[in-house]
TrEMBL record:
GO terms for molecular function: transketolase activity. GO terms for cellular component: cytosol. This is Transketolase. SUPFAM superfamilies: Thiamin diphosphate-binding fold (THDP-binding). InterPro entries: THDP-binding, Transketolase_fam, Transketolase_N. GO terms for biological process: pentose-phosphate shunt.
Length: 147
């Protein structure tokens, strides 16, 4: 309805927000198939998840993302704040995963944003909405750039 333009959900430990987002996208897909008839779109929303580097090292997140791909959740958009820092160290100290290659390998639409501006991220989201796959948007960022 017009009363609810979005639903905000906060989560606990690393990775759980990604899994919750995939669950919400599954619910949207199932409900839209059941409720939407013809050109009438009662259920027609996207699920956006903003995740940091540490979130994408967690098993619960990685397993959920594979489900998103298998289920072809094209309205699931993962925005990764890629600053190369996890809890208390550089990501490169604990992981050598090429995330762009990983997401391509599991069947995601992959978009890379080299400059973290509103316009660039908005353009990437607009592009993501054209895909028939879930989308991973890697946004290169610098943690606390002016401190």
């Amino acid at each position: 309805t017009d009363a609810f333009e979005f639903v905000d959900a906060s989560t606990g430990p690393l990775g759980q927000g990604v899994a919750m987002g995939v669950g919400m996208a599954i619910a949207e897909k199932r409900m839209s198939l059941k409720i939407n008839k013809g050109n009438t779109r009662v259920i027609d929303n996207y699920t956006y998840v903003i995740a940091g580097d540490g979130c994408l090292q967690e098993g619960v997140a990685l397993e959920a993302l594979q489900i998103a791909s298998v289920m072809k959740l094209n309205k699931f958009i993962l925005i990764h704040d890629y600053n190369k820092i996890q809890l208390d160290t550089k990501v490169s100290d604990v992981s050598n995963v090429d995330l762009l290659a990983y997401f391509k390998a599991i069947g995601f639409n992959v978009i890379e944003v080299n400059e973290a501006t509103y316009l660039n991220v908005n353009k990437a989201i607009t592009e993501a909405k054209k895909s028939d796959k879930p989308t991973y948007i890697m946004v290169h960022n610098i943690i606390a750039p002016f401190t």
